[in-house]
Input
Amino acid sequence: MNLSEEKLPAGDEASAQLRGGANGSPLSAGAADVRIWQQQLIHGVLLSLVIVGPLALAAGSYYAYTTQTGWLIPIYLLIYGAMLAITFWRRVSYQVQVITCLTLIYAITVSDFLQDGRGGSGRVFLLAMISLSTLFFGRRGELAVLLLSLLTLIGFGVVYSMKWLVLPPAQEVRSADASGWISNTVVFLMIGVLLMVSNRYLVPRLMVALERSRRLAQDLELQRAGLERVVAERTEALSHRARYLEATADVARSIASILDIDELLARVVRLISERFDFYHTGIFLIDSAGEWAVLQAASSEGGQRMLANGLSEGRGYRLRVGAQGIVGLVAARGEPRIAFDV
Output
């Protein structure tokens, strides 16, 4: 479920991404961020309702008592208890929290219509349901809630207009007016559609912005890692070159201070092995006839044995120039060579 950087998700695609994971499909990076935001939002909504709930419960209960609709007080208590449960019980899933929250709001809406008819705040609660359903469920959810809201308004309008329910005289005048219900329903439909269109315009673009932000962060992280690798490689190269220059300076000082050739060559191979961490360093010199490269100094134990064996034979350890191995080839051509398999 990838988001395109060039095309904004629309319609059912946006809804599917808002519901990411509800049907078992994996969430994309941007949809995962939106889901986290949705979970935080529903928790904040529930927490706010729990905080202001006691005041609303007290005011609603008192109003129900004064209007002789005390049967609504147990419903209010049940609603508040349900809010407490879904807010603080951690095992309640995101979908259950959202559905329960919308159900509670709808229950408050119905009780308000039953108590005050058209003069109450039921229409405000229905608009809140539409907004929340758009944020939490996408297109299908908002359409279902909008349809439910319209049917609720129409149903209560019919019930009160036909005198199937009778309110106290103060509320009865407005609630029994069929034209008022029709007008309120049309206005409600206009505001509900406006909320739906606005949310469907903003939420998909929020997802795209989150996806682009995540990709930008990933690109920056890759660039940072690449720069660190380049810096490390260049630092290592400079360190190697510094060791090389230091070793060269030490060899130069040794040449200037040591007059004995054997001592000088032994010092040179030791310095090179120590400074460059070579297990073996050897120096060959070509004899006066130009036919043999003779080992003159070596830093490793094996090289020392070759020197000792050559001295015992009376002619030194030697390789024919141009004919034997890498040493003979280098001695003949006068060019450096690196061999990875010797």
